[in-house]
Write a structure and sequence with these properties.
Blueprint (H helix, E strand, L loop, with lengths): L1 H13 L25 H21 L9 E13 L4 E12 L2 E12 L5 E8 L3 H4 L13 H6 L3 E6 L14 H6 L14 H16 L5 E11 L1 H12 L5 E5 L19 H8 L21 H6 L5 E7 L7 H11 L1 H4 L23 E6 L7 H13 L5
Parallel strand pairs: 4-5, 4-6, 6-7, 7-8, 8-9
Antiparallel strand pairs: 1-2, 2-3, 3-5
Helix pairs in contact: 6-7
The structure holds beta-D-galactopyranuronic acid (GTR).
Length: 392
């Protein structure tokens, strides 16, 4: 009896009260034609492809290229032993060319000095690179705690999104866009890729290199991003199945947040499209102020990660990202994992801060504090990878 009471109390303390519930959410396991999806085969051959097509045409846009024929890697600097001898640092230049020219970007990898190939976390850094992903480690930031990542036995890899194309309206005419498209032409197809998809393309090119690097275990690579980077991490994982995990930190609207939930303080399509139309394809504007009339929602985008691992994270003060909406996407995406005989997000309700839910293949945690990517978030992601045997 006493144990029962204590168990009930523990449950109360680990579950925060949340009255907000999603409403009229598009049904994940019903096709656009109205057919119920109950087998893995139906999911893989009908439902997942039609969802991917919809998100590509209506939200993130169609890429003119995946891995280009002209792609090469070179050392931007000689390898260097750093972090008190714990890691080897590599600085790699990715060079690529297309019909309209060529471009390149450099990324940094700190790889633990181990006998075995190591699993890795790849950060898409959307903040000032000098302050957040300093390859010299003169400036250290909790946004990318590379020393801690290495100490836990994972490689820490990072690139700056602005090196793929700038995070501005005219970003759509620069960087990778100017290599594969005629950017002097005013016409932009309504389903042409937006900047989020371009950054995700960059993450996939880093994966192309990871696959060639014997010190790394390419089968266990997580892509991580915060906020706009967190939206991009999901786009990366969904379009590139080589990533075994996607960590979407405080990604909010057009990332992990469900639209079919009434969270007045959170960002809506009208807000994001007003300021950041260039992140998406032009068709996305059609859904402004009509997102709940659209036949899909973000949980269905997350479901396209199944059966791989997903981490979703929120922060208590980050109402703009819509914490409950991020949580509910995980819950409602879960049936996709069940078709693979796995569990998605195992939850008893919206959790209290610092009570990560990590039993299934979707991890969700709420952290006390502001919109940010912190060592606490990183440790949750690494705990989840540990739990799934990434460091054997
Ligand atoms: C905000 C934007 C969000 C989020 C955030 C960020 O201004 O409205 O969608 O992406 O920026 O990236 O920090």
């Amino acid at each position: 009896m006493k144990t029962k009471v204590m168990f009930a109390m523990a449950l109360i303390f680990s579950v925060a009260a949340s009255a907000v519930q999603p409403e009229n959410v598009p049904e994940l396991m019903t096709t656009f034609g109205g057919e119920k999806v109950s087998t893995l085969e139906q999911w893989e051959t009908i439902r997942a492809p039609e969802l991917l097509k919809e998100f590509t045409r209506e939200e993130y846009g169609r890429r003119p290229v995946e891995r280009p024929a002209a792609l090469a890697f070179e050392k931007a600097e000689p390898d260097k032993v750093m972090m008190d001898g714990q890691a080897i640092r590599k600085r790699i230049r990715v060079m690529y060319a297309g019909p309209y020219g060529g471009s390149s970007f450099v990324f940094t990898a700190f790889i633990p000095r181990k006998e075995k190939p190591t699993p890795a976390f790849l950060l898409i850094c959307n903040r000032n690179p000098d302050e957040n992903i300093d390859p010299e480690r003169q400036v250290k930031s909790g946004f990318w705690p590379a020393e801690e990542i290495v100490a836990r036995g994972y490689a820490a890899i990072a690139f700056w999104n602005g090196d793929i194309t700038p995070d501005r309206q005219h970003g759509r005419t620069l960087g990778v866009f100017s290599v594969f498209e005629d950017v002097t032409c005013q016409y932009r197809p309504r389903d042409g890729w937006g900047v989020l998809s371009a950054w995700a393309w960059g993450a996939s090119r880093v994966m192309d290199w990871i696959e060639t690097e014997p010190l790394l275990d390419a089968k266990h690579v997580a892509v991580v991003g915060h906020s706009r980077g967190g939206k991009t991490a999901l786009v990366t994982g969904v379009y590139d199945k080589r990533f075994a995990m996607a960590c979407s930190n405080d990604s909010g609207c057009s990332g992990a947040k469900l639209n079919h939930i009434d969270l007045p303080k959170s960002e809506h399509l009208s807000d994001i499209v007003r300021t950041f139309q260039f992140w998406f394809c032009l068709n996305y504007t059609t859904h402004v102020n009509a997102e709940t009339a659209w036949r899909v929602d973000q949980h269905e985008f997350i479901a396209l990660m199944a059966p791989r691992l997903v981490c979703i994270a929120s922060a208590t003060e980050d109402h703009w990202a819509g914490q409950e909406g991020e949580y509910w996407s995980g819950v409602l995406a879960s049936p996709a994992w069940e078709l693979y005989g796995a569990k998605g997000l195992v939850a008893n309700g919206f959790p209290a801060p610092e009570h990560p839910l990590q039993e299934g293949c979707i991890s969700y945690h709420l952290r006390t504090g502001k919109h940010n990517l912190t060592p606490y978030d990183w440790n949750c992601y690494m705990d989840f990878a540990d739990r799934h045997g990434w460091r054997q």
